[in-house]
# Entry
Amino acid sequence: MLINNWYVAADSADIKVGEPTSVKMLGFDFVLYRLETGAVVCLSDVCVHRGASLSRGNCVDENVACPFHGWEFAPDGNCAKIPSMGEDFTTRRAKVDSYPAEEVYGWVWVFLGDLDEEDRPPIPDLLPEYHDTDNWRTTRMWFEVDANWQKFEENSLDTAHITYVHSTFGNRTDRKHTPAQIKSTYYGKKVRRERKAPKATQKSGVLGKLLSEERSKTVVELEFCLVGIAHRINPQFRPGMSQATFSASTPIDSKRTRQFGLQARNYAIEPENDQERIDGRRQAIDEDIAVITHVRPAIGPTSFSDEMLVQSDQMETEFRKMVMRMIDAGYEIDHEKVEAQWDRKIYVIPSPARRRDPKGWVHEAVPTTKPRNDKIWLELKQEAEADMAKVAQNEPAQSAAQGDENGGAAE
# Structure
């Protein structure tokens, strides 16, 4: 699990004014609540006094009050009141970590890390169709799965598995992988593939009616972004008819993942067709879960040398390479150490305030598997910005590697 990244914490509609809400991310507990201004606050959920859960307390004006002794913590994490010590008592050590929060696509995104604002990446904008409500209809859903976040995301980037796992899409007679150019995007990669279309009989409901005639090919664009562990899948069924699915995965802990998803379609956009599309997505997700919950090793990322990867694993390989760079930057949580000491020691995700002033904190920042090296992150950021500059100038950012030892071997 990686710190210094944006993650979707909740649907915006679920965070109410003055109502503390508990959310677990990266194996840690957080309290979220909304101010009268509409802004969302996210704090570490463990009170520095006697370890009570702040999300079980209540809001007092803009603060959240601990249910144990009434200590009040302000949106910036500083303790505003200690009732037992009187109105005038203050101490700089009475503070909890506070995390930046933004709302995009009807989701609350939280930056779980200590990078300053200028060093944080922007939240990915992978569904422009969401805003075109005249021509596109969007449905939303979220679910939890007993699977590691990296294993689950790599499954979503795997274009070879659909022939074997999914019943309503993927051509059963066209199984051979065709190499395609992989292009760099902002903190991610993108690929466009053309394949023989599935049989019309594989489709049912509205899609079955609209695609009742056999098609020669289908075009799918697939893109991932390391920020938010997000991806976009955009199948074009026929000219002028397509849908786009944007998903963001948040690790609950090392073995559980919560995924938030939006799907926009420009066909059958009447609201009465929503449930059919939601049911279709749920079916596909269940088919993935049936496989991914039984892969080993259960926790990723897996070393390249421990798996036999081939050319059809191009996108998964690119994603894993980027994750490995985050690990080399010292951003991977040492979950084994945290779990071993869980009942005896409080660790927290470090916040920007802790980076600016590292002294005087009661709870210790979470240990990482490698020493911090922010230079690696800044290099990744610079590369992402350079790639986007090339895209803006209509230059190819990157081509798929052939014969790469980390997964590009011939199939």
Notes: Residues 396-411 have pLDDT under 50 and may be disordered. Residues 274-292 form the longest helix (19 residues). The radius of gyration is 23 Å. Helices lie at 149-156, 162-165, 205-210, 274-292, 314-328, 335-340, 352-356, 374-392.
